[in-house]
Every structure is written in C-alpha cells, then in structure tokens.
Known about the structure:
Low-confidence stretches: 2-31
CATH topology of the largest domain: Collagenase (Catalytic Domain)
Order of helices and strands: EEHEHEEEEHHEHEHHEEEEEEEE
Structural class: alpha/beta
CATH class of the largest domain: Alpha Beta
Amino acid sequence: MMFPFSLKPIRWLFCASVFCCCLFGCASVVAQNTFIPEAQIVLFTPSDIKPPPREDYLPRLNLFGLYAEQFFHDGLKDWGYQPARKEIFNRDADGKITVIHVKGDLPAAGGSYKDKWISAQVHDKLKSDHGIKIAGNLYWIFVYVGDPPVRHDNYRGSGNSKDGGWAVLNYINVSSKVSLGDEMVSRLHDDLTLKGCIHEFGHALGLSHIGPKVELRKGNTLMGPVNRIYAAQKLPNRTKAYLAEANAAVLSTHPIFTGDASQRNKLPETDFQQIKVSFNRRSRTMDVTGRLKSSDQVHRIIVIDDRDDKIGAYWVKGYVAELDARSGFSVSIPQPGPTGSLKILAVYTNGAYTGDGMKRGIESAHVVPYSRAN
C-alpha cells in the first residue's frame, strides 16, 4: 500500500560540504541533495522487544537485499534498459550489505509503538544514535515485534526520485532464508512475504500499482495484487513475478540506478495537450494520442488504463510510449473496459516522474475520463 510521502529519508554524511536539514512533515529542505542515493536496510524493534541474534538476522536480511537488487537489475534489462548500478544497498568494507538495528522508544505492549510513524521513529534514532543526517536516500525497515504468530501487519512504503523513500514491513524470525535462485512467489518466499516486502520498497522508489498482463505469461507483477488474490483468479504462472514495463521505465532514470543525481531536484514543466481517445471496433483497441509541452528531455510517456470494471486497484494496466520528433505520442490499449480513466505521466531523464509538473508520482497524473458509449 502506498501512502503520501511525508518524511524526508536519511543520507550518509559523505562530506562536510553537503548538509541537509529538515523536520518531519516539513516541506522545506536546505542544500542540494545531488549525491548518488543509496538504500539502507534497518531492523526496528520496539523498546520492550529484544532483537533476534545479529548472527541470525544479518544474513537473512542480506539475502533480502541481494534478491531485490537482482530482481530490479534483471527487470530493467528485460525491458531493454542497461542500469549503470546494480548494488543499491549500503555495504561495509567487505562488500556485505549492512543492517542497522534501531530500538524505538515506544513499547510493543498494547501496540504503543504504532502511535508514531515508524519511519519517523527510525529517522529520529538514526540521527541521534548514529549521527546520520537526513537527505534523499532510501531505507527498508523490517519491524520485529516477536516470533510468529506475533507480527507487525502494517506494510507501507512511499518515496520519489528527489526525496528518497522508505518502506516499513514485518521481519519474520524463522529458520528459513530467501533463496536467490527461486521464483519470487515460491512457497518459501510466500511464507517470508518476499514479494510484499519488495513491493513496498518499490513504493519507496516511487512506483505505483501496475497489474499483470496475462498475455505476457510472466505471472504477477511486483506492483500488482497480493499473491493469494492473483492465485484466486486462477491465472497462469502463479509462482512468478515480473517488473511491469511502465514501472521499469520509471526506475530506468532513477538516480539510484543511473548513478547520476546532478539534476534530481528539478521538476520539469509538464503540459499534456491535444489528448484524443478513439475506439477501434475492428481491432478492439482504444487508441490514445497526444502531445507534451516541456523544455526538458523526456524519457518515456506512461499511460495507465484505470478501467472502472477492474478487479481492484492493483489491477490497472500500464502502457509506455516515446515522443516523436514533434513531441507527440500514441499508445494502443487492447480490450479496454466500457468506462474508466487514463492517467498520463512523463518520465524524464533526470528521474522526475510527473503528470502536471507541480507534484511527483501517480497523484500528479493528467487524468482523462473515457467511455465507449461516447
């Protein structure tokens, strides 16, 4: 589940000349966060919970990070992109993914630890206990509140290419570990909620929900429905999950994968014009054309078909187009619903993802309602 981004994440203080200052919920940020962002894995425990032994959780969470890195790398390459960076998680001198344990001030008893956003608690502790300053990095927070069946059941994530992001999920203390060679939705990985954990981290990277295209026979999408819902629809390849083309287009210019954050703060002018929707009865497609007015370099156009008769919010379909020499674009959507709306956004080479040039992410989409009856 994706929530509005309300907390500027953390960054490592690589040099004294780069300083960023913000308060939780504050919109103003001092200094330019033009460093290459990294992601940090965190194990969070409430004040009255003893964490599992470090020799147990460290290798397990290391495997979560390695699996996520490989998944995103392979997903980008599958759609023709060549990411400059594969290793996105912070590492120690030996090349191992680091995990920081953060102990909160609020107890698990009575659910008190949920009284304040966990991402905010982690931010405060990383700053006060570890000297980590705030800026545009990402952090993946695994919450441990006890061994099964006790669990933290509130999975959340949010972020964008400028501010960084955060994801909060449950740490399951079992002997099983992520298997790097297995499908994402194997029985083992389903028990470990692997897809759900990486799904929330996808939100931290700025991804929105995009459902599967069954005709591709790739299984479910990372940002699509939960495993049991996909399986209940009796769709093929239930153990597989893939990175949707629209999501890959967004990640392909994110500074964490390109290694270039020099322009990450800029939100380009974005003005979609002359949007036309037509229905071709012979081919049973919905054809969408339009133009984009912008002075910045556009990477891709994303058109999301949010049909009214979809199964749920996780089942929207995404389509990708490039601008032609006259700044025009077109997409053809097969078998559209009778009514719905199109959400249109631009992906820029600096990592920005916007539909109106004023906000970032899916909430900024240029929305065009449609009806086959018209």
